[in-house]
Amino acid sequence: MRKRHLRDLKQEIGKYLVIFLLLTASIGFVSGFLVADGSMLQAYHDSFEKYHVEDGNFTVQNRLNHAQIRDIEAQHVTLYELFYTEKELSNDSKLRIFPKRDKVNLACLMQGDMPKQSNEIAIDRMYADNNQLAIGDTLTSGTQAWTITGLLALPDYSCLFEKNSDTMFDATKFGVAVVVQDTFEAISSDNKTFCYAWKYQQSPADETEENARAEDFLKFLSGEVQLEGFIPRYANQAIVFAGNDMGSDRGMMIMLLYMIIAIMAFVFCLVISDTIAKEAAVIGTLRASGYTKRELIVHYMTMPVIVTLVSALLGNIFGYSFMKNYCAGMYYGSYSLPTYVTIWNGEAFVLTTVIPVLMMMVLTWMILRRKLELSPLQFLRRDLRRKRRKKPLWLPDKIPFFHRFRLRVIFQNIGNYCILLIGILFANLLLMFGLALPDVLDVYQDNLKDNMLCKYQYILQMPYDAMDDDPSLGTMMSMLLFQFDIQTQNEDAEKFTAYTLKTVDTGYNSEEITMYGVQPNSQYIHWKHTDGGAAVSATYAEKYDLHVGDAITLKEAYQDTCYTIKISDIYAYQGALCVFMNQEDLNAMLDYDRAYFSGYLSDTPITDIDEKYISSVIDLDALTKVSRQLDVSMGSMMYLVDGFGIAIFVILMYLLSKIIIEKNTQAISMTKILGYNNREIGGLYLASTSIVVAVLLLCSLPIETKLLTALFAVVMKSEMTGWIPLVIRPKIYVQMMIIGLITYAIVAALEYRKIRRIPMDEALKHVE
After folding, report:
1. Model pTM?
2. Domain limits of the chain?
3. Helix (H, G, I), strand (E, B), or coil: what is residue 739?
4. Of the candidates 427, 426, 393, which has an alpha carbon nearest to the alpha carbon of residue 410?
5. What's the pLDDT score for residue 133?
6. For 316, phi and psi rounded to 5 degrees?
7. Cα–Cα distance measured from residue 458 to residue 598, given in angstroms and rounded to the nearest whole number
8. How far is the C-alpha of 674 from the C-alpha of 668, rounded, in Å?
9. What DSSP string describes 461-483?
10. If we measure between CA atoms, which residue out of 263, 175, 197 comes closest to residue 52?
């Protein structure tokens, strides 16, 4: 019996080979992803100590003197200069330039050399990739020019957020760079930002203590210096965003692998069932000779398990070599991460080797146990049906012979076609996602352009010395000066209040919600407001399934204060998750003065307010950062998803078509004896499968649309901030049908060759 394994493998090499290739590719991809994900996450966490990452930073209007530094460091912190300047480049992007660092936020050199001369510069690796820049290229800003000598990653800019208040980073239009000290002093003389990083002399025990110490430090700094910015590390998106995101796709990848394993297990069972049908007489003889059912189960499940085991082992080798680098490249395509070292991932080995083999063993054992329950006599008679029809399925005589024949082929292989339907659903789900995502991002950008609140939203930044709760004379003077300086003569400008709260009890990760307090007769935001009521944006309502009359609860970030708000309207705005309230109502809820405001809505640029008072400007460019970055970071992933979906479709088509042809080998041989030619026989058997494939492709489209809509919503809710609605254009369905039919045509051509090779004497080998 053991000697038959190699012979069976040789005879069924086509089936086993395609299954082997798909399993190896699937396990290799998931293994590579898990290894890259784990290794890069470890490198990210290690970078905090390795590169001496700050505990926070603050910016001031003027450089600190020695006395101020001494007083600040008396608060059990150590200060480091982190000055920078910003330059608009000729390639329509902005570069934030730092002097070379040697104490805090140390640079990780990825390629080339650090700058040594006055005309040299080292730039962020991701910014260079997105702008097609390489070592030796020249960057220009006005009359200034620098030669790129190296590509690096700065640990305090693992995500290239220009401002911490930005909704999404943009690694194409913003980057960071390092130059020598003399060059920095020369280019920053007229535009230098005085930023200081701090490190606690004794690290906080947990996030709660870190938050409390940061608040105490902020209060102290507000009384000592004129703050322009203050960002503790736990709130710095440029530092923590990548770490929060890495690992979030892990569950989805594992689920993808196990779905493929389950489908392949069923395919193996079809292959085994076909083998059992062909070898029924042999099995009956063995059973009659004393072989137990257990011994036969072990025999027939040996090859599937061996193929799965070999696929898993080679897949892991493939994952640790090529796919690991490919998956790491996807992370490097999104984030500016330091160099990582591959770490052996024992959990990944269990998930991609041990569990798939166990799944294959259990599934094949269950099906084989059921298949081999028949008596030896039934096997000897080739009577493998549990419930035999007394009469064949009746079909009207008016149906032409060829049509009736095709219908019988379909009914005889209904089980195989059910497996094919599952495979088509799974493969086309991947294909639909890959084809739809670029369109989803395009439609999202178009909707934002057509449905903006206004062309510009200016969010103001109150000086930190005006935020002090202590009503000192200096605080009052700072507030009066701020209120005077933020007045504008722009006739389009309309005051509004903006505030950020966080969601609670949604069942998903907490995310930020922007509160808009607008004037009753706003020229930009038109909604029916009631006393104490609020309108939520359409995206907020869609993401969390909110309706008029519902109540939402939002809380202060890092505090326990909560607010309950009743929804009185759904406002047709796609740009953000936000809530619109009457300005006085919002100010009262937040315990602000009635006349308080924190920004302007305008259709024209506001030019008469000092930039130091402007925290952020929300325009079309800012709103579309999310979709632009997704397009950059996931572009290559979409081609992989498309290819994977097509590969699964091709393999399942090939295997099931091959099984149907082999199952009907004797009948095909008989039709040849009766005088039918190869083309006519192909019309009988291949046409039957072709009809089923076309029907299944067509019927699967609405099912896949509902599945993808549900899965996309879950991913957006659990893994992404904000909301991008899923839009599937009609052309996607046309593309999927064309791809499916062309793919099947290729498979049918291969199977037609199989039909031509079936000899006439095959019909005489099993005469009963």
Report:
1. 0.65
2. 50-245, 400-451+622-768, 456-618
3. helix
4. 393
5. 92
6. -65, -40
7. 9
8. 10
9. ---GGGS-SS--HHHHHHHHHHH
10. 197
* Angstrom distance (rounded) from CA 144 to CA 398: 87
Among 100, 107, 131, 3, which Cα is nearest to 47's? Answer: 107
To which residue do tokens 């991809």 refer?
A: 29
Q: Measured between alpha carbons, how far is 268 from 659 in angstroms, rounded to an integer? A: 11
Cα(29)–Cα(314) distance, integer angstroms: 11
CA pair distance 762, 665, nearest whole angstrom: 7
The kind and range of the H/E element at 741 are helix 730-757
Sequence-distant (6+) residues with CB within 8 A of 672 are: 681, 758, 760, 763
Measured over the CA atoms of residue 545, residue 546, residue 552 and residue 558, the dihedral's sign is positive
Model confidence over 554-609: pLDDT tens digits? 988 656 788 999 998 898 888 788 899 998 888 889 888 888 888 899 989 888 88
CA distance 507 to 229: 33
**Residue in 99, 97, 90 with CA at minimum distance from that of residue 177:** 97
In the three-class reduction of DSSP (H, G, I as helix; E, B as strand; rest coil), residue 72 is classed as helix
pLDDT at 471 over 50: no
Q: Please list the residues that pair with 503 across neighbouring strands.
A: 554
Identify which of 228, 269, 230 has the alpha carbon closest to the alpha carbon of residue 77.
Answer: 230
Span between the terminal Cα atoms of the chain, in Å: 26
- Residue 55 dihedral angles phi and psi, to the nearest 5°: -95, -5
Segment 66-112, tens digit of pLDDT: 999 999 999 999 999 999 999 988 888 899 999 999 999 999 999 99
- In 616-677, which residue ranges form alpha helices assigned H by DSSP? 620-623, 625-663, 665-673
Beta-bridge mates of residue 241: none
Whole-number Å distance between alpha carbons of 140 and 146: 7
pLDDT tens, residue by residue, 23-49: 888 788 888 888 888 888 888 888 899
> CA–CA separation, 114 vs 120, rounded Å?
8
**Cα atoms found within 13 Å of the Cα of residue 405, Cβ hemisphere only:** 15
Is residue 126 helix, strand or coil?
helix
Q: Give CA–CA dist 5/11, Å, rounded.
A: 10
Q: What angle do CA 461, 462, 465 make, to 5 degrees?
A: 140
pLDDT surpasses 90 at 124: yes
